[in-house]
Design a protein that fits this description.
The structure holds two protein chains of two kinds.
Chain A: H1 18-31, H2 34-49, H3 57-80, H4 87-111, H5 113-116, H6 118-123, H7 130-153, H8 167-192, H9 196-207, H10 221-228, H11 233-244, E1 254-258, E2 261-266, H12 268-292, H13 296-299
Antiparallel strand pairs in A: 1-2
Chain B: E1 9-20, H1 28-39, E2 53-64, E3 69-73, H2 80-87, E4 95-101, E5 104-107, H3 120-130, H4 135-149, H5 164-175, E6 182-185, H6 194-208, E7 214-217, H7 221-227, E8 230-235, E9 238-243, H8 245-258, E10 269-276, E11 282-283, E12 287-296, E13 308-313, E14 318-324, E15 336-345, E16 351-361, E17 366-379, H9 402-406
Parallel strand pairs in B: 3-7, 3-8, 5-6, 6-7, 11-17
Antiparallel strand pairs in B: 1-2, 1-4, 8-9, 10-12, 12-15, 13-14, 13-16, 16-17
The chains are: A mainly alpha, B alpha/beta.
Chain lengths: 300, 408
């Protein structure tokens, strides 16, 4: 009975449990509606490139601007301390600019994905998770183009790919999870409270100063580095830079000794911390989303 | 029917749904005081009513099995749309259970998922996926959908350049090509031009009579009368009547007639009783006599003493005859009780008809007094014709003259 895709058997009321809810989300909603997720992602990608003057250049515009801004900042810092901006600094920023652009883009689209599809949400049933998730997937399409571009450009900035670059897929998945979790939570929050959109805008604008994109956490000293790493994206972005640009194995700690003392630039625990955020954040967001879903049509 | 529990069906079991009047809190600023109140225990439990809340649907139950088609009718605000949304899982009941066994198809707001920048083709796949169809399923029906919508030439044009009619036709065609186990239909029956409406209606009829359970919500009483096997009349969220479509339409017309007689208006005329004097059933083309009684207050002018006779086809609710007592030749007494004999010739097709009395105010264009009504069953008789009314035709063959032939 492959045709029972739409089977809407409402089970008898049972007490809700985390596992039952998660199974419902994964099996009854996302798996059965995977083609809808695909179609909506396709829609978002198509409308982004239709009647667009930039075409695929759009995909690398945002990361390029971030790197340009970062280079400017680092140049000023280097000038004041009498040094110069090394090529691997720019390479490191390029590696981190891409996921940051992905996060900003996905969250921006996902936050208004439910309110922006009002006629759908109030007229037709389908698991609403697919709306913020398709916004996230559509952004990953852009970021994939960006990643290929950066991948080609890095050797020109003096980067030699080593075995440690194999960390990239895992880190990419974790970054996707953090983003998807935030996308679900914020999309749902914005449906109930319309001012969430503005809060998110402000946070995304200033978020780059609280996330290590232009700089490395170790530049803030031993305590500052730890505080900066509290940002769930920080260990994931730093992990990318260390594994790709510096060829560091993320299972080994990295302690740098400077003239102001030793700073822990990396510890495997950072990776564990980032991964925990990604997984737990995604699960919690899904549960929150799932449990408020029934009220969407009334509040939208 | 191997197993009845597996047969597709629609069940609505003591469903309650509450809504709140006014605004829900829409910004975080409002949430905080509301949460504090809830925590302080000042809010009632979630399934009871508080201040601004009301039951949009209260204690509604019904079941629709294979081969059945349920029509839901009622005035605006009776809860029809809410029931549809509960059925299609857009809303969740506050209390009670609502379930659909099998794959549900819904003919509601059919073009809701269209994106203006995408082409017709892209939108067919998108909308199909939203309605729960598989890609391969859509691909196999794609040509059928496009030719049903009659937009073959424009299928690769962005939908924003479509006319409203094309948009609606394509939306309907997609929704009408899911093969559902159960079907929920909103008033989408009036899509496109007259010809397409007929085509859409035929398609709906085809789906309705294919033996799957159907729920149909409509203001078009004729549709309910012709498509449904039974019906349900809703009033302010409650079931006011359930029975055959004709019974419910009758009750609906009755209640909307008594709904709101012009407040504050006084009339010089009151009705006591109305009865059919002739034996039932009346045969098509025969005359029937009615007796009505009432009283006229002294001192009114002639217009204040007049009243209106109306006949409706109860299967559809359509008014087929209306005339004032004066037009019928009755001049009412200047005061005191009266009794009137009314004779009507039923030159109509077999069916159920209702005679109603009312005092109509030409200024406000409303009924000032709604009088009693009586139901008349009309059966096949001497007149043979199809259609709704017999126009007493006379036709004779004319001789062809030479002059007429030459003038050509």
């Amino acid at each position: 009975m492959s045709d029972l895709v739409l089977a809407r058997d409402v089970p008898p009321p049972q007490r809700r449990s985390l596992l039952r809810d998660l199974r419902e989300i994964a099996v009854d909603e996302l798996w059965k509606y995977r083609e809808l997720l695909y179609e909506l992602t396709l829609r978002d990608v198509r409308i982004r490139y239709k009647q667009a003057v930039m075409g695929f250049a759009w995909a690398i515009l945002m990361p390029t601007l971030i790197v340009a801004a970062g280079t400017l900042v680092r140049f000023a810092m280097a000038y004041m301390s009498g040094g110069h901006v090394a090529r691997d600094v720019i390479a490191g920023m390029a590696v981190k600019a891409l996921p940051w652009a992905f996060f900003v883009g996905a969250i921006g689209f996902a936050t208004s994905s439910l309110t922006g599809n009002l006629p759908l949400v109030s007229k037709i049933y389908f698991p609403r998770e697919v709306l913020p998730l398709s916004a996230t997937f559509a952004q990953s399409f852009d970021s994939t183009i960006g990643a290929i571009t950066v991948g080609v450009a890095l050797p020109f900035l003096g980067v030699h790919y080593g075995l440690t670059a194999l960390w990239v897929p895992l880190l990419a998945v974790l970054i996707f999870c953090v983003t998807a979790g935030a996308a679900l939570f914020l999309g749902c929050a914005n449906l109930f409270f319309r001012d969430v959109k503005y809060i998110v805008q402000v946070l995304l604008t200033f978020g780059i100063f609280f996330t290590p994109v232009f700089f490395e956490p170790r530049m803030f000293g031993p305590l500052g580095a730890r505080l900066m790493m509290l940002n769930p994206l920080a260990p994931l972005l730093e992990g990318l830079r260390l594994s790709v640009v510096e060829g560091h194995n993320l299972l080994e700690p990295l302690v740098l000794v400077g003239n102001k003392g030793a700073v822990v630039a990396w510890s495997p625990w950072y990776l564990a911390y980032g991964a925990t955020w990604a997984v737990v954040g995604l699960i919690v967001s899904m549960l929150v989303f799932h449990r408020t879903e029934g009220k969407f049509a009334e509040y939208v | 029917m191997s197993d009845l529990t597996d047969a597709p069906r629609i069940e609505f079991d003591h469903v309650w749904k509450k809504f709140a009047r006014g605004e829900l809190h829409d910004s975080l600023r409002d949430l905080v005081p509301a949460t504090v109140r809830r925590l302080a225990g000042r809010m009632p439990p979630r399934d009871e009513l508080s201040g601004e809340e009301f039951w949009a649907v209260s204690d509604v139950s019904f079941e629709v099995g294979p081969g059945e088609a349920l029509g839901i009718l009622g005035p605006n605000g009776a809860g029809k749309s809410t029931i549809l949304k509960l059925l299609t899982r857009i809303l969740v009941p506050t209390r009670g259970q609502c379930s659909i066994t099998g794959r549900a198809g819904a003919l509601i707001e059919v073009a809701a998922g269209f994106h203006p920048d995408l082409t017709g083709r892209e939108n067919v796949f998108l909308q199909g996926a939203i309605l729960g169809m598989k890609r391969r399923e859509i691909r196999s029906r794609f040509d059928e959908i496009v030719s049903f919508a009659e937009i073959e030439a424009f299928i690769d044009t962005p939908v924003k350049r479509y006319s409203n009619g094309m948009n609606a036709r394509l939306g309907f065609a997609i929704a009408a090509h899911i093969s559902p186990d159960v079907l929920v239909i909103d008033e989408v029956l009036s899509v496109g031009d007259l010809r397409f409406q007929q085509k859409a209606f035929d398609r709906i009829q085809e789906m309705c009579t294919s033996g799957i359970p159907v729920v149909l919500v409509s203001h078009q009483l004729e549709r309910i009368a012709s498509l449904c096997t039974h019906a349900l009349l809703l009033e302010r969220g409650r079931v006011a009547k359930r029975g055959t479509p004709t019974e419910c339409i009758e009750a609906y017309l009755e209640s909307s007639r008594n709904g709101d007689p012009g407040a504050g208006h006084t009339s010089g005329l009151t009705f006591d009783a109305l009865s059919l004097e002739s034996p039932l059933p009346v045969r098509s083309g025969e005359r029937a006599h009615f007796r009505l009684s009432g009283a006229v207050a002294h001192g009114g002018d002639e217009a204040s003493r007049d009243f209106t006779l109306r006949v409706r086809a109860l299967s559809t609710g359509r008014l087929i005859f209306s005339a004032s007592a004066q037009d019928c030749g009755a001049s009412m007494p200047a005061g005191g009780p009266f009794e009137v004999d009314v004779e009507l010739q039923f030159n109509v097709a077999p069916g159920v008809y209702g005679l109603e009395l009312a005092v109509w105010d030409a200024e406000t264009r409303r009924d000032v007094v709604s009088g009693p009504g009586v139901t008349v069953q009309v059966e096949t008789g001497a007149l043979t014709f199809s259609g709704t009314s017999h126009l007493l035709p006379r036709a004779r063959v004319l001789p062809v003259t030479k002059a007429a032939g030459a003038s050509r």
